[in-house]
Amino acid sequence: MDLLTTNTEFVEYRPVLELSKTENLADGFRALGDPHRLKILYLLLTCGEMCACETMLALEIPQSNLSFHLKALKQAGFIKARKSGRWMYYSLDRPAFEHFLGVFGGVFDLEKWPERSQSTACDDTEYRNTRCSRGADARSEGA
What we know:
Helix content: 55-70%
Structural class: mainly alpha
Number of strands: 3
CATH topology: Arc Repressor Mutant, subunit A
Largest sheet: 3 strands, antiparallel
Shape: elongated
CATH class: Mainly Alpha
CATH architecture: Orthogonal Bundle
Low-confidence stretches: 1-13
Strand content: 5-15%
Mean pLDDT: 79
Distance between the termini: 25 Å
Number of domains: 1
């Protein structure tokens, strides 16, 4: 018996998360996974468009490090760049950032998915004995 296809209550409660959403979220979190990048986003959010040299001074990091972090944020789609003469200016791409936050909030909506004290899927003895970690613990204790 395959619990995911036969127990509709379980499937309705925990729909499958699309792979594209998980990949996009993971890419975004990789870009956000550095304190300097979070500081850059915060600066652009609170100050608006900034020249790269201003950002470098605010963060007190070398230009090469700043370029690395700006590139990661730009590739993730969180910031935009524009050149004016010799200077590069960066700004938060608000629609893209709001989209990322919306996808994250939609998937991990605490109001939508109330806290449960116990998984009902593991109440199915066959599932628990074949797939669930609680079943694996019980099998190893009995051995």
